[in-house]
TrEMBL record:
Recorded name of the encoding gene: glmS
GO terms, biological process: carbohydrate metabolic process; fructose 6-phosphate metabolic process; protein N-linked glycosylation; UDP-N-acetylglucosamine metabolic process
Function of the protein: Catalyzes the first step in hexosamine metabolism, converting fructose-6P into glucosamine-6P using glutamine as a nitrogen source.
Protein known as: Glutamine--fructose-6-phosphate aminotransferase [isomerizing]
Subunit structure: Homodimer.
GO molecular function: carbohydrate derivative binding; glutamine-fructose-6-phosphate transaminase (isomerizing) activity
Catalytic reaction(s) noted: D-fructose 6-phosphate + L-glutamine = D-glucosamine 6-phosphate + L-glutamate
EC number: 2.6.1.16
Keyword Nucleotide-binding: no
Keywords, alphabetical: Aminotransferase, Cytoplasm, Glutamine amidotransferase, Repeat, Transferase
Covered residues, full protein: 247 to 613 of 613
Any GO CC annotation of this UniProt entry: cytosol
Lineage of the organism: Bacteria, Pseudomonadati, Thermodesulfobacteriota, Desulfobulbia, Desulfobulbales
Active site, renumbered: K362 (for fru-6p isomerization activity)
Cell compartment(s), UniProt: Cytoplasm
SIS domain: residues covered: 43-182, 216-357
Amino acid sequence: EKAGYKHFMLKEIYEQPQAITNTLSGRINAETGEVSIPELNLQGADFDKIDRIFLVACGTSWHAALVAKYWIEKYANIPVDVDIASEFRYRHLLINERVMTIAISQSGETADTLAGIRIAKKMGSKVVTICNVVGSTMTRESDGTVYTHAGPEIGVASTKAFTAQLAALFLFTIYVAQQKKTISKEKGVELGRALIGISSVIEKELPRIQDQISRLIESFYDARDFLFVGRGLSFPIALEGALKLKEISYIHAEGYASGELKHGPIALIDKDMPILALVPQDDVYQKSISNVEEIKARLGRLILIGTEGDTHLQNITDDIIYMPNVHEDMNPIMYTIPAQLLSYEIATRRGCDVDQPRNLAKSVTVE
Ligand code: M6R
């Protein structure tokens, strides 16, 4: 059942290209860039009535929401609020029929997220669920759905469900932008092709990335703490990397927006503090590099994940994993791969049961 892999988690990491391909299958026309999402039940004029979107989720699915905020605001031009479901459900919400609420949930059964959409619906909001389980409670209670087709995820740590959520959310972004005409036809083709193309890039790179990481972790696996940092689209991926590491290896880890370091956490940095920094050559690259250089000046043990050909990184550290130069909106999907594999390799090196971490359940159906 593990198809030759040592753990479900590793199998599911390797299933990601297929999960993304299945999620996109039949939904984008590579020639025209046109997107269709029939189960969403919303088109054209429906979006004219929406002036705000709430994204509501827990855990890893919340990280997908944080990435989607950047995409939706940039291309569909709709303000997006992102909320942790357990906060959303108990706060004074300003919701009406002009607000769309989108739940993101692998299982479709998470208690807090479900409660959140029930409240939003009562307040008149249109409710959409991004979900991996056909017929789950959230999909039954929503006005529309975008299914991810990642297949069953057995490992408690979410991997392929997350990258499939990102693919579905980018698909949704292109769809809304096309319906609202906030992007040109050419932009639609460009974004659609970038999304379709990411699976084969990941497929090709996965074994190399795992191999390089498995060698690198020898000097990091016994760390007590770990920081993950990134800016822009890489910030939520830093949070996701930190969650993955603490969940399966029991190392204390935190994710930060790189620009926040100097507001407190930089006090933690010394020669024993490993920091994984995501530094793709995107529109905030220069800013990220100056943050990383500040870490270096405080003797932090840096691991850099950056763009192939970026030789400047070699002046900062020897521990670099290079990623192929993909479309900048695809970086969150691409850079998730080394974050997952680093956590997996460290946890297995420490002898942890990565598929069944202590104290955790696959689906949190109670509050
Ligand atoms: O099924 P859901 O996506 O609603 O689950 C949400 C979280 O419980 C889940 O992502 C959790 O954080 C994972 N164990 C993370 O790997």
